[in-house]
Specification:
Elements lengths: L12 H45 L1 E11 L3 E9 L4 E7 L5 E4 L6 H11 L4 E10 L2 E11 L3 E9 L5 E6 L7
Antiparallel strand pairs: 1-2, 2-3, 3-4, 5-6, 6-7, 7-8
Amino acid sequence: MARGRSPRWYFNRRGWTIWGIVAFLALLFLMHAELRNIQKPVWAGEEQAAAQAKEKAGLVEVESAEKYVWDEPLWVVSGRNDKGNSLVVWLLKDKQPHTEDVAQSAKEATIAQTLLTSRTGADIIRIRPGWYQGKPIWEAHYSLQKEQKRYYYDFYEFVSGKFIATYSLTAKRSS
């Protein structure tokens, strides 16, 4: 008697390939759903900060909202007002928002140049607006390679660009 086609197609090579693809797609879907679930509070915080900046500081367009933590947690929101001016708004907990016009402040490129001039060989990781000792600042995060790579934070006044302080992180030591 001649053997016909197996009614259990899912036990042959083609079936296993299909089941593998289905399992892979299901895994991708679950990973995507989990990532969205993890990010949901962050996105909600960004939306809330943007809405608060629009309401209290007069922004009509929000470009970015970023949580900032140093002395105290707060939100830093960048955007434009109804006149088209670029503003940075610091949303402090239980206080009025602090607003600075970007055109009247030190530029990020100026801070980068100042840092590279004073710290020869520095590798800039990030420069962003922040808050330090009750004042708006530029925070410059960078690394320097001497005997080993070390990471630093330099703070500059937001408006004038004047240097305020440096904090160094401890170097990693391998045992």
